[in-house]
Design a protein that fits this description.
This protein is mainly α. The protein has 2 domains: about 35 residues, no CATH class; about 160 residues. Helices cover about 80% and strands about 0% of the residues. The longest helix has about 35 residues.
Amino acid sequence: MRISEILQSLPRTILTSVIITIIFFIILFLINGGWAFDRYFFNAIFRYFHTLSGVMWIGLLWYFNFVQIPNMSKIPDEQKPAISKVIAPAALFWFRWAALSTIVTGLITAYINGYIHEALSLNLAEGIVPKNFTIGVGMWIGIIMAFNVWFIIWPNQKRALGLVETTPETKAKSARVAMITSRVNTILSVPMLLTMVIAQNLY
């Protein structure tokens, strides 16, 4: 199979990426002299999937807010159905499931590392531990953002995009609610990413 045939097909492109990742994983396994399938191993695996999911989620969030929403007014009316009927529903599919995957893999990672209770409670009862408090704040921000995706943005987008029947007034109101909530998530995304990154350097 030629390279061009792989790159012209998204499933083949993704499959190729997965194969390369597995090969690289095996090479790392051999170089390291093998790995024990212990807490550290599964921590690395779930942290990897947490990062992948987060990149997809925040990447699409920023796509909506930096690309799609600001440019919708520049698109001729006859071309807008291509966005609302094809591109936006597909993007929202990956958007909401990436949000859920990010939260689930993040909670599993926190559980494996033994700090899920301390992080979610912000360790306030026993005094603030900088690392746990910081990652906990990030986790709560992420949970709030995921809640917004599933219970505010998605239901309103379904009405705004005409995926469910509604009145023109409700459709317009839903579009605004979805947009405002998406902007809230954009505001939250920057400090959330800061907590996730900086927590690794705290004690």
